[in-house]
Write a structure and sequence with these properties.
The chain has 251 residues and is an alpha/beta fold. It has one domain (5-248): Alpha-Beta Barrel (TIM Barrel), CATH 3.20.20. It is built from 11 helices and 8 strands.
């Protein structure tokens, strides 16, 4: 049976003191801790690793290099992240795709690097408002998923997580209805099942699109939604803890 998971994506927010305060609150407030993860800014990883060392909260990065090592200024390799205690790495977030022009092929390379170092990638997929209105949601999601399975094989999904994030619902305050989210989550699971039913049944598919304390329970109650990738609400300890409580009540 799939377990629930709630992962906070802090993005480029906070300061050293606010990160430490937030982590301390999460460690004491989230029960069970195994339901949670946090993807922090790169510079926060070493200290976060120490603060989370004796807890079950999974530490993650917000990206990972597509190369093993070398002259790649500004990149951080999977092996470096693992050395500092990271268990998770977001790849293909819509902001990376939309703002920094990351192609599905580059995302697939990042995913492959994470897998090769036993770093669990959180593969983000999702459509823009224009693509949804053109009835291309399933085509876009299928293409983004196929880029990864084409490079690493469908079997690699057994070592990863998928996050469906409708781009039109990120940072806008607009949330896909539980039914809209469930429809795409079910599509993803069924698409994977065409190649491997066991992996499809067991992979965690998170929803990432303006999840908040007041809508988490309804979203997490959908049969194919296994938790959330949380943006803004993850920066507030009370809100994030409440979202985690919603997830734990589903299990």
């Amino acid at each position: 049976m799939r377990s629930m998971l709630v992962v906070g994506n802090w993005k480029m927010n906070g300061t050293r003191s606010s990160w430490n305060e937030l982590l301390s609150a999460l460690v004491s407030g989230i029960k069970p801790q195994s339901i949670a993860g946090v993807c922090v800014p790169f510079v926060a990883i070493p200290e976060a690793s120490e603060l989370l060392e004796d807890t079950e909260i999974n530490l993650g990065s917000q990206n990972v290099a597509d190369q093993e090592a070398g002259a790649f200024t500004g990149e951080t390799s999977a092996s470096m992240l693992v050395e500092y205690g990271c268990k998770l790495a977001i790849v293909g977030h819509s902001e990376r795709r939309q703002l920094y022009g990351e192609s599905s092929e580059l995302v697939a390379d990042r995913y492959a690097q994470a897998i090769s170092h036993s770093l669990k990638p959180i593969l983000c997929v999702g459509e823009t408002l224009e693509q949804r209105e053109a009835d291309k949601t399933f085509d876009i999601v299928a293409e983004q998923l196929a880029a990864v399975t084409g490079k690493s094989g469908v079997e690699s999904l057994a070592k990863g997580i998928i996050a469906y994030e409708p781009v039109w619902a990120i940072g806008t305050g607009v949330t896909a209805s539980p039914e809209q989210a469930q429809e795409v989550h079910a599509f993803i699971r069924n698409r994977i099942a065409e190649s491997d039913e066991t992996i499809a049944a067991n992979i965690q598919i998170l929803y990432g699109g303006s999840v908040k304390a007041n809508n988490a329970s309804e979203l997490f109650g959908m049969p194919d939604i296994d938790g959330g990738l949380i943006g803004g609400a993850s920066l507030d300890a009370e809100s994030f803890i409440s979202i985690c409580q919603s997830a734990s009540s589903v299990e």
